[in-house]
Amino acid sequence: MTGRWDVLVAGGGNAALCAAIAARRAGRSVLVLEKAPKFYRGGNTRHTRNMRCAHDTATGTLTGPYTGDEFMRDLLRVTSGNTDETLARMMIERSYDMLEWIQQQGVRFQPSLGGTLSLGRTNSFFLGGGRSMLNALYRTAQRLGVEVRYEHEVTEVEIDGRSFRAATVTTPEGKTRIEARSLIAASGGFQADIDWLKQGWGERADNFLIRGTPHNRGSLTRALIDNGVQQIGDATQCHAVAIDARAPKYDGGIITRLDCVVFGIVVNKNAARFYDEGEDIWPKRYAIWGRLVAEQPDQIAYIVFDAPNLEKFMPSLYPPVQADSIAELAGKLSLDPHQLTETIHDFNAAVVGGRPFDHTEPDGNRTEGLGIDKTNWAKRIETAPFYAYPVRPGITFTYLGTRVNDRARMVMKDGTPAENMFAAGEIMAGNVLGQGYAAGIGMTIGAVFGRLAGEEAAAYVA
Amino acid sequence: MSHSTPALIEADRLMTVCNSCRYCEGLCAVFPAMELKRSFTDGDLNHLANLCHNCGACYHDCQFTPPHEFAVNVPGTLAQVRAESYAQYAWPKAARPLFARHGTALALGLMVTTALFIAGFVAASDPGALWSAHQDDARFYALMPHNAMIAVFGAAFAWMILAITMGARAFWRDTGASQTGSRDHAQAAHDAARLTYLDGGGMGCFNDDDRPDDRRRMWHHFTFYGFLLCFAATSLATIYHYLLGWHAPYSWHSGPALLGIAGGIGLVIGPIGLLSAKRGRMPELGATGFRGMEVGFLLILLLTGATGLALRLLGETTLLGGLLALHLGAVLTFFLTMPYGKFVHGLYRYLALARHARDLRHHKTAK
User: What domain of life does the native source organism fall in (chain B) (predicted)?
Assistant: First the structure.
């Protein structure tokens, strides 16, 4: 159709499609504008693999119950309480329903993937991964009559007071103006815009790798904030993990992640350790190392371990750097051989150990007497060949975005709710995630707020 | 690990990518099999390639397929490795070039054998029999005595069994499928009979685009079970002839005839469906350089089925002689080319499924 749409959805990932499907099922005309070409559609959803939803009993694909209360406790822990609790509780409450609703839209689940057993109870894994999930949502949306246009980026918005009127859309053929009775912004974070990242991180951002889509540059986020919508979060907050430094600048995805910090030590370019590698078990330690490496000189670090550990963790795309001695390894990494030898010598001498090694829970094998001790899983690095992975901060998505209320409605600068503007997904993730991250929660934010935004927009238009 | 062909080198690269991701492990047997290893010999990769049913789901589910710079195309790469593996294990070695020129071999074989049968019919009895055998009580045996038929087809069948066994033995050894037990074979038979892994993890396999449908599995069932029914018809007829002394021709409601009619229908519908699916299928999902082998195999099955049915329908007309020559030519060509074409895919896939069943069993025990 042409003319005025009931619901205009900016974005093409999980949040956008859940919004589009919900609004379309309520009988509204829905136009989805996706900035990327078809293959790259869906932003970071392409790279996801699971979603964290509350459930009271085990299911065919979940190994046990995960109540809303436990979910809330986990969220408070990973964010250090830095969350909008009302919104968070609402989201968790609505996540109960999401498991069934999303399957009704054609998404299929499977038991947790090999190498991710620690998430088997809490997280629902998509059969075939995030792109399979996304393909299912697109098939459903298009079958229902949602219109999807690729390579259409919303770059400007016309807002009259608290009310959205029209969007300027940039396409390969030029700019067009599209009117709609409501807007759902689900266009992701801005992490692919390095200049914007620099506003928070300074020149350090030049050394960051972007794990997902190169298309999320936050043009709509900027336009909304410039036109009176209230900003939430600051430009430094994001989901960042330590990934292989050899990964491409954009879109390296899951296969560049390294989960071997606990099996050795991590040193910076001065061949010095800088953080307790044994602080906590997988899900938590995974999400802190991006920021830790970002604080190191040149934003680079090296995970060093020895032969017995090579196959104890999930394999990744690039082979580790290998050498028969620590000095040789240092040479290959362009580190000072004497310094690295000394760091490892000191570490080995401080290992107390003596308990059975168990990387699935804090095992009490620690060092004693170092400036920075390793408090669990400490084992001497002594058996050749020696290995190292170079790592850099890998940004998954940013948290700065638009403030929303508990109906997914955007909030204006003066604190009043917008009339017909809603937001879902990464663009409003900062409402729930003031800092920190828990695996699969980005998809929960996208699906729950997406569906809610779609329903609310449909109700407004009615 | 070094590998002997570009396709194997690419398959090895992809297995490293896939093993780092594992998002596809719920789709089929290939990815769980891959997860059991971190380095792969040629034999391991040939095993994985033959375990792949080419449903295409992982191509559409993968975030790294072209145009992504990681350029991951598992079904296309494994299809290439698989097609090349057929030749790699074939016996005798001198016959290996036949795989890449299978279409030509089939066409030539069909022309030569059909012509020879016609010549034989004419030489064996009077030239007019070619057009009048339908009035003779002995029907085809008026054209070609039963013992002559048994001699020709028995010899071709024995050669085929020998060559296929030698190929399967080489595949079995190289892909390391020792210590498979009866449980593993039962599992493999079950998965082969159902085509468990040709359903994209439950939503159907992919063909023309990114929407799944399950028709290829259906067409394959028509073909495979049609083939088995035809085989059963021939076997039953052999029992009738030698054990019970009941000699052909058999009436349409006899056991061999009913089995043959049902099988013939399967061998007509199935290959036509598969040929049409193949025509619309995304080319990146398949191998290059083996079109003749893939299409030829379906065409010879179709011709065998269609001429068999035609003999049943038109066996009492003057067309009997010509149809019989064509049917026998098709069957004989099929027998002789079976070890050197697409037919071996069924056997190697079965063996791969058996090894996979064993590997999973051992893996569980080891845990």
Answer: Bacteria
The DSSP H or E segment spanning A393 is strand A386-398
Nearest to A443 by CA among A188, A250, A219: A188
- CB of A251 within 8 Å of a chain B CB? The answer is yes
In terms of domains, do B238 and B276 share one? yes
Does the residue A158 lie in any domain?
Answer: yes
Q: For residue B61, what is the nearest residue in chain A, using CA coordinates?
A: A132
- Type of residue numbered B292: G
A419 min Cα distance to partner chain B (Å) = 37
Residues A86 and A204 in one domain: yes
**Site from B18, B22, B23, B363 to mutate, A interface, most A CB atoms within 10 angstroms:** B23
Nearest-CA neighbor of B303 among B155, B74, B29, B106?
B106
Under 8 Å CB pairs connecting chains A and B tally to 80
Q: What is the edge-to-edge ordering of all strands in the sheet holding A153-160?
A: A153-160, A163-171, A174-179
**What does residue B281 show for φ and ψ, rounded to 5 degrees?**
-70, 145
Question: What pLDDT digit, counting tens, does each position of A6-18 carry?
Answer: 999 999 999 999 9
Compute the average pLDDT of residues A102-123.
90
Total structural domains within chain B:
2
A128 and B23 in contact by Cβ < 8 A? yes
Whether residue A343 sits in one domain with residue A363: yes
Instruction: Confirm whether A426 is domain-assigned.
Output: yes
Write the ipTM: 0.94
Instruction: Give me the pLDDT at residue A182, please.
Output: 98
- B270 and B296 housed in the same domain: yes
Identify whether residues B158 and B26 lie together within a single domain. Answer: no
Residues of A in contact with B20 (CB under 8 A): 254-255, 314-317
Taking CA atoms, what residue in B is nearest to A114?
A: B22
Q: Name the residue of chain B whose CA is nearest to A111's CA.
A: B26
Same domain, A426 and A390: no
The answer to whether residue B344 sits within a structural domain is yes
pLDDT above 70: percentage of residues in chain A: 98
User: B12 with B110, same domain?
Assistant: no
Mean pLDDT of chain B: 92
- Residues B330, B307: contact at Cβ < 8 Å? yes
Structure tokens at A14: 């999980």
* Residue to substitute from B12, B20, B28, B39, interface A, most A β-carbons within 10 A: B20
In this prediction, residue B247 carries a pLDDT of: 86
The CATH number of the domain holding residue B256 is: 1.20.950
Is the residue at B356 inside a domain?
no
Q: How far is B74 from chain A (nearest CA, A)?
A: 13
Q: How close is the nearest chain A Cα to the Cα of B30, in Å?
A: 13
Which of A258, A280, A256, A277 has the alpha carbon at shortest distance from A266? A277
Query: Which segments of A245-357 are extended strands (E)?
Result: 265-268, 301-306, 321-323
Q: Which of A336, A368, A394 lies at the terminal end of a domain, its last residue?
A: A394
Picking from A46, A47, A128, the nearest residue to B26 by CB comes out as: A128
We report the CATH number of the domain holding residue A296 as 3.90.700.10
Q: Let me know if residue B1 belongs to a domain.
A: no
The two tokens of residue A346 are 């000191």
**Helix pair angle (B102-124, B320-337), 10° resolution:** 140
Residue A1 domain-assigned (yes or no): no
Listed as ranges, residues in chain B with pLDDT below 70 are 177-178, 367
B69/B158 same-domain check: no
3-state DSSP call for residue A184? strand
Determine the structural domain holding residue B14 and report its residue range: 6-88+361-366
Q: Are B293 and B83 contacting, i.e. CB atoms less than 8 angstroms apart? A: yes
pLDDT digits (tens, 9 = 90+) for A342-363: 999 999 999 997 889 888 888 9
Those residues of chain B whose CB sits closer than 8 Å to some CB in chain A are: 16-17, 19-27, 32, 35, 38, 57-58, 60-65, 67-70, 201-203, 210-211
pLDDT at B202: 86
pLDDT for residue A2 is more than 60: no
Give me the CATH number covering residue A142: 3.50.50.60
Q: What's the structural domain count of chain A?
A: 2
Among partner residues B19, B27, B211, which is closest to A128 by beta-carbon distance? B27
The answer to whether A317 contacts B16, with C-beta atoms less than 8 Å apart, is yes
